[in-house]
Amino acid sequence: MSYRAPLKDLMFAMRVNAGLDRRAGWSGHEDADLDTAQAVLEECARFNEGVIAPLNWTGDQHPARVEAGRVSTSPGFAEAYRQFAEGGWQGLQHPQAHGGQGLPKTLGSACSEILNSANLAFALCPLLSDGAIEALMVAGTPAQQAAWIPPLAAGRWTGTMNLTEPQAGSDLSLVRSRAEPQADGRYRLFGSKIFITWGEHDVAENIVHLVLARVPGAPEGVKGLSLFLVPKFLVGPDGRPGLRNDVYCASLEHKLGIHGSPTAVLQFGDGRGDPALGGTGAVGELLGTLNRGLEHMFVMMNAARYAVGVQGVAVAERALQRASAYARDRVQSRPVDGSLPGAAPLVHHPDVRRMLMTQRALTEGGRALAMAAAGAFDAAHHHPEAAARSAAQARYEFLVPLVKGWCTEVAQEVTSLGVQVHGGMGYIEETGAAQHLRDARILTIYEGTTAIQANDLIGRKTLRDGGAQARALAAEAAALAETLAARPGPAAASMARRLRAAQASFEAGVAFVLAEARARPNPVFAGSVPFLMLAGYLAAGVEMARGLIAAEDALAAGEDADFHQAKLASARFFAEHLLTRVPGLADCLLDGADSVLALAPEAL
Amino acid sequence: MSYRAPLKDLMFAMRVNAGLDRRAGWSGHEDADLDTAQAVLEECARFNEGVIAPLNWTGDQHPARVEAGRVSTSPGFAEAYRQFAEGGWQGLQHPQAHGGQGLPKTLGSACSEILNSANLAFALCPLLSDGAIEALMVAGTPAQQAAWIPPLAAGRWTGTMNLTEPQAGSDLSLVRSRAEPQADGRYRLFGSKIFITWGEHDVAENIVHLVLARVPGAPEGVKGLSLFLVPKFLVGPDGRPGLRNDVYCASLEHKLGIHGSPTAVLQFGDGRGDPALGGTGAVGELLGTLNRGLEHMFVMMNAARYAVGVQGVAVAERALQRASAYARDRVQSRPVDGSLPGAAPLVHHPDVRRMLMTQRALTEGGRALAMAAAGAFDAAHHHPEAAARSAAQARYEFLVPLVKGWCTEVAQEVTSLGVQVHGGMGYIEETGAAQHLRDARILTIYEGTTAIQANDLIGRKTLRDGGAQARALAAEAAALAETLAARPGPAAASMARRLRAAQASFEAGVAFVLAEARARPNPVFAGSVPFLMLAGYLAAGVEMARGLIAAEDALAAGEDADFHQAKLASARFFAEHLLTRVPGLADCLLDGADSVLALAPEAL
């Protein structure tokens, strides 16, 4: 089944949820109007539908392979990456000063959704390069930025994040890799890193590894970690890749999904580099301040967390498209209401309609939420007023764990429903539905598991500001519910009622978290993921409510009835089938800790 | 990670939920006391832990292969099957008159859980043989029973169900395979069947295919389907397999999971049989009455549906054991309450505890529900009083779609949580957690999708008796809630409250279904799966409530404190985290149809 980028839906979300049409006077947004966005998206759709999407199944069936440290990526990937780079797609969101196009995150995020729908495994390579660029923008010296960003933004080189070690997964305090200072101010790195996405490949001429390691005598724990930039090939005076550095791929992982993405075990300092390096150890340079590596890495991780949330939306969209096409095509059984004399396409069966509507509402809810966050990011960087900028930044930071946590959790449901809609055919790999389920399964894990997003939501995003952002979201929900209740029509009334109930549940949850988290952390953290999911449903519900209003207004104005009827339907479905999950989640948080904690850890 | 059969949990469920200790005076239960059960289970555990479980990963990594119609199963499977057959495990539940052991379904079901936990793909072969025996018991002539059941019950031959064709999946009215009557009273079969589990293999000396097909001139639709028995090798006068029949494996499917189970495309009548057959067409005999094949097949399907529900429990148990072992072993991060000075095993983190408790409560809830159904089955067949037998039969039939639908849906959640607990390691195939997720994904599809179970629950099991069985379940929940409310202690109070709320939701759902299903089928069937899930949570909750009471009583009597504390904890968790999902499900059913049906099918 071929992929078609949902351009109308993306344009709708960019307007309604990210306010792309309400940015007059913003610096750097002079060209960022709806017409430009439409043109960029059309070009993006054309490229990804034609070049990248057809390689999705190829990558799944022909994973990257490694032989003697050299990785061959899936057939077609290297040529597709070349076209990706030449098309300027890597530089979309990056500063013009470094060769990028400086477009808003709102637009970058829409393009990222398309790329990830086309091919999640492929898209991880640019995603990691984006992260490396973000880290360089924040922590790099001007010289480092000038040296490393342009080739990364041009897609000539790619970036990686090297955090995890066998004993250090979510817990980076256990990182052991070491960096020894050299006389020339550089460092030699030694150690082993695992789960390095696109850690070795053949699609670009160089790889820029950002590596967490410790210098001798550094403090224990995360406060002794520094960030190093370690290229696969050292860069010569001509700016071209030269000597092969002492970092090699020892193996690739055999994974459940994203087979087209080479996940490497990297060895630093095994003595396999070019003899002209003059000794063992991978040569690297410090990025940012000594012992503040984790802080710098967090910049990269936050960008990546947002991007992984978008991956959730993207794979959900692809799974929905596949299920919908199958359900319209496959003829099976007579409709239960007898409306057709014989067997009908699956879409005529109520439960298939329910499944497709669930997929649709969760996908659109995720897209709306991610777009709202992108809009906040853009406002934080480009709004003319300082107060608005700082409010937007706080809002963005509050939304990131929801985008990452909620959009990826619901992607599990959407891709699993995608298999279910296909019936037995869904279980056959060649159908393609199962790949989306397998691919999606990593999303709630990498860049911080859902529990880690929930800890972030509670700790840094709710407790630290005394619940200010959380209350702002609740207030917004309340205001929207009031607006909706005043409108005629059953959809608005239905949404108003469910939004109010969800808001009340959320406020009770926030109050509980604020009152208890410091004094009795276990009961609060026993409900951390239910709290995150609750907040995610509410935040996405708020954005779907905006969509409902916009769709009703468009319908009243006689604009594109089919499209806006569909928007109205998915918003109402979101209210009646998804927001209604919220009170049960609140029960888990408010009144469920005793049973989570009843058994001693050893008895579990 | 090695598998350990949960003997204590199984014994507990056999007592508390299936009443194995309350069967004095039942015919055929003279030897079915708890001591016998314990002895059989111990032997079953020993065999499956030692012989079958170690082949689970082997089968996944080395799927069955086909070459020129001959299937080679995964390494070790043939030898393990030989031991399975020699151990008498196939005949456990089958009549002693045909060489079986005639044990109660309660015990057979417990053994089936163990076998399926050990190796889901392997266990499918005996599962299908069980189904063939059941169909022969109901539809076969005495001569057919005498000829075919003993070798099946001895495990010398295996059985299959041939329903699906490329154009006929859930919709069997579209079946086209044809059976032409021969002068000798037998038939020649022609056609193509797909998705035939263990349809061809090398583990036993013959295969007994039960095949749905049409005789010339049969009515269209399901009322023109007859059931035929078509052996791979025709049976000679000596009772031994002889001439190769004209049924061949054209290919095996490349599936998401259960790789060790060969899923065959079978061609009947391609002219590849032994020349001595004297012409093309697979030779078969009619089983049961002409044109009533579907009815006979339903006997087999109902047995298989129950068994697939047990598969859900089984794979959930295996996933739970693996996650729990990893979480006790893997050290990562300091506990959020500061109770330990450094990094602690994962089980110390509240969200990991929540995930493990969710896995545990859903697995135990499924087991309790399946055991309650098995107890009803045994009562239907062996209770001394006719009225009790017929009540038990109605109860069993009501529970089957819940066992199949609910236990397999929650198995998706349990196996997915199993991956999540492992973090990044869960995504690596060698860890084994992902296999359970992949294996489990078929369970909500085969033997009737969840939507088909929901249709059965609504149509045959709720409407047909005017809601009598549904109301009986609600009354039982109400009575248990009253009992619980009268007991001291927070767990009983908590369960009482949630059981009452769930019961009220269920009653509202039943009333809605009864009032609307015939007049307005679409709105009811738009909520059919939420209704099934709601009923499943309630029915499992009722059984968990029984467990809670039994555990409290055992604790009061000073029996096995650790075990019964754990039972108490999982029952309370079930109430607070799982029964609390029920009101949201009721919302979907009672007030969610408009948004399911808002978009025209063509617009989905």
Gist of the model:
Two copies of one chain form a homodimer. By secondary structure, chain A is an alpha+beta fold.
Account of the 3D structure:
Chains A, B: Keywords: FAD, Flavoprotein, Oxidoreductase. Chains A, B: Residues 291-457 form the Acyl-CoA dehydrogenase/oxidase C-terminal domain. Chains A, B: It holds the Pfam family Acyl-CoA_dh_C. The structure is a homodimer of 604-residue chains. Chain A is of the alpha+beta class. Among the domains of chain A are: 54-87 and 119-291, Butyryl-CoA Dehydrogenase, subunit A, domain 2 (Beta Barrel); 462-599, no CATH class. The first copy, chain A, is built from 19 helices and twelve strands. Chain A has helices at 7-16, 34-52, 55-61, 77-86, 105-118, 120-139, 142-153, 293-329, 350-382, 386-421, 433-440, 450-463, 468-485, 490-516, 521-525, 528-556, 561-578, 582-591, 593-597; strands spanning 65-67, 70-72, 157-162, 178-181, 187-197, 206-213, 226-231, 233-235, 241-244, 247-252, 263-268, 282-287. In chain A, strand 1 (65-67) and strand 2 (70-72) form a beta hairpin. In chain A, helix 6 (120-139) packs antiparallel against helix 8 (293-329). Chain A is globular. The model of chain A has no long low-confidence stretch (mean pLDDT 96). The interface between A and B is large, with 98 and 97 residues.
